[in-house]
Amino acid sequence: MNVSYDIRVRTGTVVGHNNLSTSTDWSADSGINYEYDSNLPLFMDAENGDYRLVFDSQAIDRGSDQYAYNAGLYEHSLDVAGQPRFFSTIDIGSHEFYPPVNLSQFSVFRGDVTVEWEMPKDAETMRLSWTSGTTMTILGIFDADGSHIWDTTQHADAPGILKFEWLDEWNRVIDGQSFPITATIINDPSIIIHRNTVSGTETWSADKVHLVVGRLGIESGASITVAEDAIVKFWQKSYIYTASGSTLTVQNNAVFTRAEDDSIGGDTNKDGSNSIPRPGSSYIRGMETPEISPSATFKYEVHTRSGAISSSETWHAGQVIYVTGTINVVAGTTLTIESGVVIKFAPNCSIIVNIDNNALMLLLGQTLTCRC
After folding, report:
1. 148 has a pLDDT exceeding 80
2. Phi (first) and psi of residue 355, to 5 degrees
3. Cα–Cα distances in Å, from 348 out to 23, 325, 344, 345, 372?
C-alpha cells in the first residue's frame, strides 16, 4: 500500500496485485489495484505509525484471495498483528480488519451460536440482527458489553447476514459502526459438519453428506475413513490436514467436491442455484500421504506441477492440473491420468516420459488439455 509517494515508471512496466496507490502506472498484466482516494478513510493513525484499518477503510475487502495465494499466503497465514489474514475477502495492507465481536462459529452456523461483543464508548446500545433474503429478524438490543446465545434452529437454512449495529441515544446507527458478517445457517440433519480437529477414529458413512468447514486437522494417532460412495464437500478455503502419525483413508467411489456443487449430494450450501463450483486448492494437505482408492473422484481440485515425478502417482478424475514447468516422468515410474482430468500447460511446458527407461504414462479415457 503506497499512499505517500507515487510509483513512476521511466522504462519497462510494473506488475502488481492487491495494491492501493496514488499511482496508476501498472502493467496490463497486473491484477487488482486501486487508486487511493484521499477523501475516504484508510488508517487509524498513519502519522504516528498506526496502520490498522478503520472500520470504514477503503482498503477493507478490496484484495484478491487468489493473488494472495499466488504470492505465498495460505488459508492460515497471519497479518502483522498475529490475526488470521483471511477473515472474509482479504484486505489491502499489512493489517486485516476485525470488528469488535467474537463468534463461536464462522461461515456456517448450526445449533446454538455464542455471540460476544464490546461496546464502543460513544454507543448507547447494540442491535443484533439476522437478515436472509428480504426478511430481517432482530435478535436483541443490548446496552452493555456481553454475550448472547443465538438458537439458529429458529430460522430457515439459508445464507444471510448477521449484523452488529451500535446505536446512539436516539437509536440511530453511529457512522461506520455497523458490522455485517456473511454466513449460512445449515441445520439440515442429512448434512454432517466437520470442523476444527479429529482426535479419535471416525468413519464418514455414505448415508450423509459430509461438509468440511475451515481447516479440519487429523491429530497424530487419529484417523478418518471416508467410506465407499460417501460424499465429502468443502466450504470455501476449507481442507483436511493430516498431522504426522495420522491416517486418512478414502475408499471406493467416494467423491470430494465443492459445497457449491449441487450435482451430487444436493444443495448443500442452501443457496438454490445462485452459486457454481469453481476449481480451487487441494482438499487434502499435511504430513501424511492419504490412502486413496483409484475409483475415488476429486472434483474441482487444482494442482500445480512441474519438475520430476520420481514415484508413481495418479491424477484423479475431476482434478485440474496446471503444468507450470516441464514435467519429467523418470525411470521406473508410472503417471496414471484418469478420464476427466483437465491439464493446462503454461507456454513452452510439456510432460516428458522416459519410455526407454521403463517410465509409463497411462491415459484412461478422455482428458482435456489446453494452454494456460
Report:
1. yes
2. -60, -35
3. 34, 8, 12, 8, 11
How far is Cα 312 from Cα 332, in angstroms, rounded to an integer?
Answer: 8
If one counts every other C-beta atom within 10 angstroms of the C-beta of residue 22, the result is 14
Q: Would you place residue 5 in the very low, low, confident or very high pLDDT band (cuts 50, 70, 90)?
A: very low
CATH of domain 101-185: 2.60.40.10
* Tens digit of each residue's pLDDT (9 = 90 or more) over 268-301: 999 999 999 988 888 999 899 999 998 888 998 8
Q: Give pLDDT, residue 2.
A: 47
For residue 286, give the amino acid letter: G
d(CA 338, CA 341): 6
**Residue type at 97 in one-letter notation:** F
Residue 263: per-residue pLDDT: 94
Report how far residue 305's alpha carbon sits from residue 344's, in angstroms, rounded to the nearest whole number.
10
For all residues of the chain together, what is the average pLDDT? 84
Please report the pLDDT score of residue 313 as a whole number.
83
Which is nearest to 22 in space by CA: 5, 39, 43?
Answer: 5
What are the cell numbers at 199?
482426535
Dihedrals phi, psi of 152, to nearest 5 degrees: -75, -15
Q: Which residue ranges make up each domain of the chain?
A: 1-98, 101-185, 191-371
Q: Which three cell numbers stand for residue 93?
A: 495492507
Task: Kindly report the backbone phi and psi dihedral angles of residue 334, in degrees, each rounded to the nearest multiple of 5, phi listed first.
Answer: -120, 125
The predicted model scores a pTM of 0.72
